[in-house]
């Protein structure tokens, strides 16, 4: 765990240091006819952002923090586990091109929903998994999908369904990290054995395709 944390810290240090860059009030799920918002916590936000980035209908995927008790937390504060935030990704999407159900499918197949302590090599409350619902329809869809996952995997699903709260974007050094620093991201990925665990949980369904 300490080795992987060091890999992460070293990778971040190669970019400009900085804390959270943006504070936003909870977004409405449906802002207009062609723009909607969804938020997911799946461990390290670098990987969850990558899972959504570039998918048809996804307008943007922003790494940040949600679910905590303080405003404008820095990355260092969140990873210390003291703020109550989860590393999260806020997805803005066009619901005429991709459905919320499809976003849920992408999310589930890029996490280990059976682990209550964190994800892969990242442990602590800040790395727990959650779906943050922005309205009652999202909440109902998330709860239904969680039941489906529990039936498919035949085990308890640790992922929580929560109401969306204030979202704080992480610093620029965390945005598009897998694209901007592929070598360092891959070192982190291999060190965490993320793909191996996903395949063990989901088999060929890991990393949902659309």
UniProtKB/TrEMBL annotation:
<dbReference type="InterPro" id="IPR036509">
    <property type="entry name" value="Met_Sox_Rdtase_MsrA_sf"/>
</dbReference>
<keyword id="KW-0732">Signal</keyword>
<keyword id="KW-0560">Oxidoreductase</keyword>
<feature type="domain" description="Peptide methionine sulphoxide reductase MsrA">
    <location>
        <begin position="38"/>
        <end position="186"/>
    </location>
</feature>
<comment type="similarity">
    <text>Belongs to the MsrA Met sulfoxide reductase family.</text>
</comment>
<comment type="function">
    <text>Has an important function as a repair enzyme for proteins that have been inactivated by oxidation. Catalyzes the reversible oxidation-reduction of methionine sulfoxide in proteins to methionine.</text>
</comment>
<dbReference type="InterPro" id="IPR002569">
    <property type="entry name" value="Met_Sox_Rdtase_MsrA_dom"/>
</dbReference>
<feature type="active site">
    <location>
        <position position="44"/>
    </location>
</feature>
<feature type="signal peptide">
    <location>
        <begin position="1"/>
        <end position="29"/>
    </location>
</feature>
<dbReference type="Pfam" id="PF01625">
    <property type="entry name" value="PMSR"/>
</dbReference>
<protein>
    <recommendedName>
        <fullName>Peptide methionine sulfoxide reductase MsrA</fullName>
        <ecNumber>1.8.4.11</ecNumber>
    </recommendedName>
</protein>
<dbReference type="GO" id="GO:0008113">
    <property type="term" value="F:peptide-methionine (S)-S-oxide reductase activity"/>
</dbReference>
